[in-house]
């Protein structure tokens, strides 16, 4: 058994399972609980509708549909659904008999709920009709009773040909006349219409009937609930008077087309009152029945809500089991299922244990048989992570999944990512707030894991340990920079002493003389000095180059581990060695000169008080003239004795490395190819082929003919083109990548200056105000400063630094050694299936 490490992915094994048909469901269910096998599809040419277990999947689809129906009904009544408890046995995969019982139970509940819903809906519709009819009788009774006093007005309006029947005043006051309608040959239509359609209703009637009608309406104050949508609808009662049957028929058709409901009303007041009394009694009786039905429905749904989550989880698991079994093949006798899949080699004992457990629980004497197959197929990549390392591994996987057994950058990202972030974000106060945010998420992680989080917060919660480390590293770099909310703190005696003149005047320049060395970080004397920005800029710029060259050199060094593991020893001499020499000859030398310049005391004097050394030379000009004037260094620009010869030698080494990288590997491979062809071999094994330790263990042949792949013939032109591209990319990348690390300096400077500006424009302006006004101003300024610090400096600047640190790892670091062309290991796991469907 090999040792598990984040340095490389886990060693994988291709396994084959022979599972008796009666044992297939419990065995696959137990393996799903274990979550360690990625099954392969052995029926790639069979479509989804022709697989062996389609009928079972459709059965579970139907059960899942019923559970979703229950969920909608429960949410509509606002009944709380009981979440899953910690008891895993409640949601374990069930046997066939238990599934049959569960299906029958769900069917019974569905019939009950459907019957209650139908009864409730029909009674609601009847209640709606009775309620509307009551309002129609009530309002039209008022209209018709008012008609007694206005019969003469109506006659006059009919006798006057130019008088419209639908006048503004009449719309406000209503029509008149319940008696004498027969003499006038006047009929009416009554009903209820949605209020939002009332205006359209009036206009259509006016235009179609050309004003030959008399309309009045009243608003219904009582809320009317539509039983089909359970939404409150505002409605109006209307009554329309018109001449003749033809006009009345037109009014009825127009009303129904606009969604109105028509109700007949008797001319007799006595019969109207009797109808109103009868309808009121029916409404009271119906309300009691509706309440009883609703209580019965709520009781049933409350029982369902107790088990709904568990049922849904069980159905999802069972459905996933049969989806997985559709990937298997039957043997010749169709009494056994054959499955193949990838699993971590270290977990083979756990898989054997899961198979034994499934056999014992099922009570069978025959268990599944597991064989380990030999193959040359590239396995998927699996990194064993925990809640601390998973966030960092996700950062790497977002760039590209590691090739199988390739060196994993995720191990180094745990330290380098938060450190480079902190270099750009360095402030003790801001780092402290970031650490508190990370600690809050970590201390409440069990609470948040049980809750359903929104997408943004879930992303922050998943990176809680990244946030914690970023905060801790920012505290450290903040102490180095001596920045605490842009203020300096003196924890020891300063290394500088200010030379104050006797007759000091405001605005006069004062120099500080170095009398010692500050024990930790930047001396607080630099804060507030006129040349502090020049000093800090120079320090952070050089520091960024040093960190960049170190990280890139480390990335180049990691290629040795890949070349050694994959048996590419030729690449060590033809790629790693010239690349490392090229990098160190130019940029490694630049780092050396930076550290050398820092280590020298350029202000040291002799006994006569004269400077021993000339002023320090500019390193940027030194690097430029190293190429423009090789072997020549001006005396005033000399950093150390013999500098010209050293630079000339390094330049020669760098130029030699370019054809070394470009030509050595293709020419050697070509020579080996011709040498082997001369010995009579047709398909030589080349350095470009992948030969892993697993291949040696498995052997050259595979038990599956379709997995055998033929070696390609040697193509010198293809190798040469690849090497040219690789050489140009590396040489230019060394320059551009080194310059890219200057973002560490730029963002650090921007963060510090923005923090200082925020302090000066908020708190600094009110610190001199005294009294009650000063206290009030201080509170307001502090609230403004703190909110802007959180919103701008922590969230916006923090996100900016995070993205730049991400880019430095993806582009500048990973491309030195990391291919990222692997396939991620995605095992059949109930835990991930249930979580994905919940999301």
UniProtKB/TrEMBL annotation:
Q: Name one GO cellular component term.
A: fungal-type vacuole membrane
**Keyword Glycosyltransferase in annotation:** no
- What InterPro entries does the record point to? V-ATPase_116kDa_su, V-type_ATPase_116kDa_su_euka
**Mind telling me which residue stretches traverse the membrane in this protein?**
411-443, 463-481, 545-565, 577-599, 648-669, 771-796
Domain of life, per UniProt, equals Eukaryota
Can you supply a Gene Ontology BP term from the record? vacuolar acidification
Q: Which GO terms describe its molecular function?
A: ATPase binding; proton-transporting ATPase activity, rotational mechanism
The alphabetized UniProt keywords are: Coiled coil, Hydrogen ion transport, Ion transport, Membrane, Transmembrane, Transmembrane helix, Transport
Q: How does it sit in the membrane?
A: Multi-pass membrane protein
Q: Which residues form a coiled coil?
A: 92-140
Family of the protein in this entry:
Belongs to the V-ATPase 116 kDa subunit family.
- PANTHER family xrefs: V-TYPE PROTON ATPASE SUBUNIT A (PTHR11629:SF63), VACUOLAR PROTON ATPASES (PTHR11629)
Q: What is this protein called?
A: V-type proton ATPase subunit a
């Amino acid at each position: 058994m090999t040792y598990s490490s984040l340095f490389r992915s886990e060693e994988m094994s291709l396994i084959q399972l022979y599972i008796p048909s009666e044992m297939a469901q419990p065995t696959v269910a137990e393996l799903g609980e274990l979550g360690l096998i990625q099954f392969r599809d052995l029926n790639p040419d069979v479509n989804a509708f022709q697989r062996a277990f389609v009928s079972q999947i459709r059965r579970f689809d139907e059960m899942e549909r019923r559970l979703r129906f229950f969920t909608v009904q429960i949410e509509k009544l606002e009944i709380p659904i009981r979440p899953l408890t910690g008891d895993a046995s409640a949601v374990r995969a069930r046997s066939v008999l238990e599934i049959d019982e569960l299906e029958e139970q769900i069917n019974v509940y569905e019939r009950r709920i459907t019957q209650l819903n139908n009864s409730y809906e029909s009674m609601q519709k009847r209640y709606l009709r009775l309620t509307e009819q009551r309002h129609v009788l009530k309002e039209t009774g008022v209209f018709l009773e008012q008609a007694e006093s206005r019969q003469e007005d109506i006659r006059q309006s009919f006798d006057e040909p130019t008088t419209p029947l639908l006048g503004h005043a009449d719309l406000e006051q209503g029509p008149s006349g319940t008696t004498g309608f027969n003499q006038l040959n006047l009929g009416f239509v009554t009903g209820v219409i949605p209020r939002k359609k009332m205006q359209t209703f009036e206009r259509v009637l006016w235009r179609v009937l050309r004003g030959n009608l008399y309309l009045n309406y009243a608003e219904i104050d009582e809320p009317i609930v539509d039983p089909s949508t359970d939404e409150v609808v505002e409605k109006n009662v209307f009554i329309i008077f018109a001449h003749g049957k033809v006009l009345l028929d037109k009014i009825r058709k127009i009303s129904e087309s606009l969604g109105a409901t028509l109700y007949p009303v008797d001319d007799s007041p006595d019969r109207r009152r009797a109808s109103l009394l009868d309808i009121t009694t029916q409404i009271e009786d119906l309300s009691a029945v509706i309440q009883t039905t609703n209580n019965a429905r709520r009781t049933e749904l409350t029982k369902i809500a107790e088990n709904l989550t568990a049922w849904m989880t069980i159905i999802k698991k069972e459905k996933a089991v049969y989806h997985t079994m559709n990937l298997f093949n039957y043997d010749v006798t169709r009494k056994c299922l054959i499955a193949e899949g990838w699993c971590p080699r270290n977990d083979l004992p756990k898989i054997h244990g899961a198979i034994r457990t499934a056999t014992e629980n099922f009570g069978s004497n025959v268990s599944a048989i597991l064989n380990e197959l030999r193959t040359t197929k590239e396995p998927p990549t699996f990194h064993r992570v925990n809640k601390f390392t998973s966030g960092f591994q996700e950062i790497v996987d977002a760039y590209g999944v590691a090739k199988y057994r390739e060196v994993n950058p995720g191990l180094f990202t745990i330290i380098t990512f938060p450190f480079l972030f902190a270099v750009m974000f360095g402030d003790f106060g801001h780092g402290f707030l970031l650490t508190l945010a990370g600690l809050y998420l970590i201390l409440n992680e069990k609470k948040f894991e049980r809750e359903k989080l929104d997408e943004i917060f879930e992303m922050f919660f998943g990176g809680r340990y990244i946030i914690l480390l970023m905060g801790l590293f920012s505290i450290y770099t903040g102490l180095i920079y001596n920045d605490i909310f842009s203020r300096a703190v003196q924890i020891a005696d300063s290394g500088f002493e200010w030379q104050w003149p006797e007759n000091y005047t405001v605005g006069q320049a004062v120099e500080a003389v170095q009398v010692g060395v500050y024990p930790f970080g930047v001396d607080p004397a630099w804060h507030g000095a006129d040349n502090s920005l020049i000093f800090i800029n120079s320090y952070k710029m050089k520091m960024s180059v040093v960190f960049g060259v170190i990280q890139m050199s480390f990335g180049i060094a990691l290629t040795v581990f890949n070349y050694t593991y994959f048996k590419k020893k030729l690449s060590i001499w033809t790629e790693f060695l010239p690349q490392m020499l090229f990098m160190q000859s130019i940029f490694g030398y630049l780092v050396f000169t930076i550290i050398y310049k820092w280590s020298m005391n350029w202000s040291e004097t002799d006994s006569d008080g004269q400077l021993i050394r000339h002023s320090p030379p500019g390193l940027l000009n030194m690097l430029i003239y190293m190429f423009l004037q090789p072997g020549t260094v001006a005396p005033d620009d000399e950093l150390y004795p013999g500098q010209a010869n050293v630079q000339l030698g390094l330049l020669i080494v760098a130029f030699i490395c370019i054809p070394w990288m470009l030509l050595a590997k293709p020419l050697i491979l070509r020579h080996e190819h011709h040498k082997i062809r001369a010995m009579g071999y047709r398909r030589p094994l080349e350095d470009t082929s992948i030969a892993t330790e697993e291949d040696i263990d498995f052997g050259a042949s595979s038990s599956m003919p379709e997995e055998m792949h033929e070696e390609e013939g040697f193509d010198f032109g293809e190798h040469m083109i690849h090497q040219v591209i690789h050489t140009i990319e590396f040489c230019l990348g060394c320059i551009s990548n080194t310059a890219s690390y200057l973002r560490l300096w730029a963002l650090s400077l921007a963060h510090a200056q923005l923090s200082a500006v925020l302090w000066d424009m908020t708190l600094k302006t009110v610190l001199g105000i005294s009294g009650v006004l000063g206290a009030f101003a201080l509170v307001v300024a502090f609230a403004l400063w703190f909110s802007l610090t959180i919103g701008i400096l922590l969230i916006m600047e923090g996100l900016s630094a995070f993205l730049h640190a991400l880019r430095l790892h993806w582009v500048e670091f990973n491309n030195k050694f990391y291919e990222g062309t692997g396939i991620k290991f995605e095992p059949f796991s109930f835990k991930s299936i249930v979580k994905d469907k919940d999301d």
